[in-house]
Specification:
Layout lengths: L1 H24 L13 H24 L15 H17 L6 H21 L14 H14 L6 H12 L3 H11 L41
Helix pairs in contact: 1-2, 1-3, 2-4, 3-4, 3-6, 4-7
């Protein structure tokens, strides 16, 4: 039992880090106005995510009670991290044949395997998502980003259609898990004015990003 608790604690920490990485690298709101994607980074990131989902699949299928453990932060959970991995993988795959499409495919495959099997072990049926996590404005932003950074190898219309099809293969499972576990799924793009958890405390609700100076990695006006 101690081993199981340690395992889920580690997964929660990794999951929070993965979700923060997704927000920072793929959907930045204050890090930089211009995002530059590094192929080597994506290759390594996707492979690490594939391994993490494999560990998650093993632990949560062996000990289903672990699925109910959650972070102290309401907007962070292992399910949110898994959703971010599936979203990024789907996004990369929808762009067409690019250098990072292959590892994205492997990450997507094990991610969908995880949500499917977890729904099965928890006795859940896939259900239509209650709300679209990717609205039109966010979609336009992402495809513009893909065109600038080399993640869009096909025509934009074809990529959008493919992304919709790919999402239909995993979103119903995420929706079922989120409803059952009472865990919120992350939006594809953070809401305007959203703050990271480190920016506020129980005593201070003002972000200190402006205090970090021009050399700081965060921007308060993005």
């Amino acid at each position: 039992m101690v081993t199981a608790i340690l395992a889920v604690a580690g997964l929660a920490l990794v999951g929070a880090a993965l979700f923060d990485a997704f927000e920072t690298v793929v959907l930045p709101r204050r890090v930089s106005r211009r995002l530059r994607l590094a192929r080597a980074f994506y290759l390594r990131l996707l492979r690490e995510w594939e391994a993490w989902v494999g560990d998650l699949l093993e632990t949560h299928l062996s000990y289903p009670a672990l699925a109910y453990f959650r972070s102290q932060h309401e907007n962070q959970s292992w399910l949110a991290a898994l959703a971010a991995i599936l979203d990024l993988s789907a996004y990369v795959l929808a762009g067409g044949r690019t250098p990072v499409a292959r590892p994205a495919g492997f990450a997507f495959a094990i991610g969908r395997h995880a949500v499917g099997d977890l729904c099965g072990v928890l006795g859940l049926r896939p259900r239509p998502p209650g709300a679209d996590r990717l609205d039109a404005a966010a979609s336009d932003r992402l495809w513009a980003l893909a065109a600038r950074t080399g993640l869009l190898a096909d025509a934009p219309a074809a990529a959008r259609e493919r992304l919709t099809a790919i999402r239909s293969a995993y979103e119903p499972y995420l929706a079922a898990l989120a409803a059952h576990l009472l865990m919120e799924l992350p939006p594809w793009v953070p809401a305007a004015g959203a703050l990271d958890n480190w920016e506020t405390t129980a005593w201070d609700f003002a972000s200190p990003t402006s205090l970090l100076g021009p050399g700081g990695p965060f921007r308060g006006d993005d």
